[in-house]
Amino acid sequence: MVLPQQPWTEGPDTPNGSAVYCVYSNSTFAGGRGISLITTPEMATYIAQMHAFTQPKSLKDINTVLNRPYVSQSIPGRGVGLFATRTLHRGDKIFSHTPLLIVHRTTFSTLEDSVRFEMQNRAVDLLPDPSRELYLELYGQFGGDRVNDILFTNSFQVYFGEDGVEHNAILPEAARTNHDCRPNAHYYFDENTLTHHVVASRTIHTGEELSLSYTDMMLPRAERQAAIQFSWGFECTCSLCSLPEALIHESDKRLKLISKLEALLDDWSDGTTATPQMADALVSLYNQEHLYAPMAVPYTYAALAYSGVGDEYVALKYAALAVESGVLEAGPEHPDVLAMQEFMKDLTGHWSWKLRL
User: Fold this and answer.
1) Considering just the CA atoms, what is the radius of gyration of the chain in Å?
2) Quick one: pLDDT at residue 5?
3) How far, in Å, CA of 69 to CA of 161, rounded?
4) Which H or E run includes 190?
5) SS3 sequence of 108-126
6) Residues 6 or more apart from 211 whose CB is under 8 A from it?
7) Strand 165-170 and strand 156-160: pairing?
């Protein structure tokens, strides 16, 4: 079998102690921004076939700083944050960047620290000077090896292939965006272009700090706080977590009710008690909780629920909303977006049509 041409300017490098993982690097990637990977040969070959490498023009307007809608400012007691310099509307692009470093998640549990540190430092050393400096300027929370500390403090999870093989990616620009449990922006990763897109999830006013969620927004407050403290070492003081206890309790109750309604709406058995009104309530609860980024979820439940009782036009309304939200949340090629688009093309032929009558 003839393997496709590999795009690496350095690697694969395999240090002693790593029989599975190698370091790969391309210093000319993305117009000279560069990229380094620590992964398996199989995943490196898979990633090398992405449009980011085979069709460099797919990265046009990526990694640009022209006309950026934000400025970086110091925040007393909180380091640095990004603040909007003009009004941003839902769906507006804030920035799109390719990672500097991508590391296979299982290296953290299968490699000795000394071997992993050596590979990580080698990968960062292979980056072009400006990108290496951009990496090393990032904040480290835990101490110890500098490159490893930055990786643990700032990385985003990205996934490759049908099996969703998890990797950790460093995107310095996005890493400077502070956390909020109810953020005004969200992100998705386009595997094919290796691009991490950050867009507004609601209207963001001039001077407002940009924010992303570092953890699962559906968790109750105590679990969110524990996850943030464990992974990033700080206590969240966002507007939601700072509410009076009585209001936090109500928020947690809404999240619990969301989970219950979703379970009921997932039931398509003969004995189901699910109704379209439950789906309407679910949409309302997401809005009450300011869960603007994942609105494709309740809209999809509502589209299917109304299809189940044969209400074509309300089902189409919610399906269209699910597509719009899904494109913003996960990108136009996400399977859930494509599924809703197919649903709209032939609603009465969909498996859910009148299934609950």
Assistant:
1) 22
2) 65
3) 33
4) strand 185-190
5) HHHCCHHHHHHHHHHHHHC
6) 177, 178, 179, 180, 183, 184, 185, 238
7) antiparallel
Mean pLDDT over the full length of the chain: 94
First to last CA, the chain: 54
Closest CA to 326 of 295, 285, 351: 295
Structure tokens, 268: 């398509």
Of 287, 294, 284, 321, the C-alpha closest to 343 is: 321
The answer to whether the peptide bond before residue 12 is cis (omega within 30 degrees of 0) is: yes
Measuring CA to CA, how many Å separate 13 from each of 8, 26, 46, 127, 148?
A: 11, 13, 17, 14, 18
SS3 at position 312: helix
Q: What per-residue confidence (pLDDT) applies to 3?
A: 46
Between the alpha carbon of residue 200 and those of residues 61, 179, 262, the distances in Å are: 18, 14, 26
Q: Reduced to 3 states, what is the DSSP secondary structure of residue 62? A: coil
Structure tokens given for 62: 């990526």
How far apart CA 39 and CA 23 sit, in angstroms, is: 7
DSSP percent split of the chain into helix, strand, coil, nearest 5: 40, 20, 40
What is the Cα–Cα distance from 125 to 312, expressed in whole angstroms? Answer: 58
Give the residue ranges of the chain where pLDDT is below 70.
Answer: 1-5
* Pairing verdict, β 178-179 and 70-75: unpaired
Place of tokens 């398509």: 268
DSSP H helices, 289-334, are 296-308, 312-330
Asked if 355 contacts 349 with a C-beta cutoff of 8 angstroms, the reply is no
Strands (E), 41-164: 70-75, 79-84, 93-97, 101-104, 156-160
Of 82, 53, 67, the C-alpha closest to 172 is 82
pTM of this prediction? 0.90
